[in-house]
User: Fold dTDP-glucose 4,6 dehydratase, NAD(P)-binding from Candidatus Nitrosotalea okcheonensis.
Amino acid sequence: MIGMLSNISMDLLICGGAGFIGSAFIRNHLKNNPKDKIMNLDSLTIGSNKDNLKEIEQNPNYTFIKDDIRNFETVSKFSQMSDIIINFAAETHVDRSIANPKPFIDTNIVGTYTLLEAARKYDKLFFHISTDEIYGDAETNISSSEEDPIKPSNPYSATKASSDMLVGAYYRTYGMKCITTRCTNNFGPYQFPEKLIPKTIIRATRNLKIPLYDGGYQIRSWIYVLDHVEAIESLIKNGKSGEVYNITAWNEITNKTVVENILKLLNKPLDLIDTVGDRPGHDKRYSINASKIQRTTGWKPKYEFDQALRETVSWYENNVKWWESLANEKTLHPQPWTIS
Ligand SMILES: NC(=O)c1ccc[n+]([C@@H]2O[C@H](COP(=O)([O-])OP(=O)(O)OC[C@H]3O[C@@H](n4cnc5c(N)ncnc54)[C@H](O)[C@@H]3O)[C@@H](O)[C@H]2O)c1
Assistant:
């Protein structure tokens, strides 16, 4: 399986490509592989924005399909036409999953199952994008590796863990070709305003208080989105079927430090920070070991955290039009799990 798809022009079915990471993958892939064809299937739910792909909308090698990954007829049709199916489509906000788990179960579990069935029917490579959150809380000084137990703490991570297990079962039971990646927290341009970094930038720009759950002691491992999409590219070329790969850039930082750094970059006072009650089931620390992908593909993160954060803050400052209509009371809410 290693190298199976390298050096040939490909047709890719990208699911969830109108979201943050999927759109970064599409922009980057078409730039570096102009002969490849991309079909982007997205239902345009919360988190998505067609403007993320404005620059390639007219590209003849790009097709957009507005549909749901749970629609077997559509996903079958486009799976048949593709060499590889990459699944970015998901309900992705932990806070919303606490307020209402149902859409997470529908898309993340039933949707992944539907895609797996289509991939199985036409014997296609299924590339599943998962998250480090499925490992749950990591003890101090311990980083989870791919063989470690899965211990999700909230409905979002539980549905992502379920989808990972389905992928593993389809590999074992049906001998399907599949790869799963588990990446840490991404940041960069085009991230939906409900997530920590854009929310902090936008609220600070408007001189609104920045809510930090329980003082922001939680540690997350941050990766610039382009490093994530390059890691995926390296696995498309050199990954091994049936394997799971962790992806991290080893930037373990507390949420409080991230927020303080953003306020400093924006020349805003640190007393904008407002400690609010903790989120139920909140994991204290995520930490994973990504030596396997490095050994397998030679991939390494290129972007340095402080510089990438500076550029991300500048992007939001210079692209108010992109986020203005998305940044409403609901997406910027201080405790989103309290609203449904
Ligand atoms: N953002 C992160 O920090 C991060 C980290 C690790 C892994 N991930 C994973 O990466 C993937 C992409 O994350 P993101 O941050 O880009 O999310 P996002 O919320 O920005 O994008 C998700 C996309 O999926 C689409 N979608 C949702 N339900 C759908 C359905 N039923 N049918 C078709 N399309 C549907 C949405 O419209 C949206 O365009 C997710 O699987 C997520 O779990 C994200």
In short: The radius of gyration is 19 Å. The longest strand covers residues 125-131. Residues 15-16, 18-22, 42-45, 47-48, 68-70, 88-92, 107, 111, 129, 131, 160, 183, 185-186, 192 surround nicotinamide-adenine-dinucleotide (CB under 6 Å). The mean pLDDT is 96.
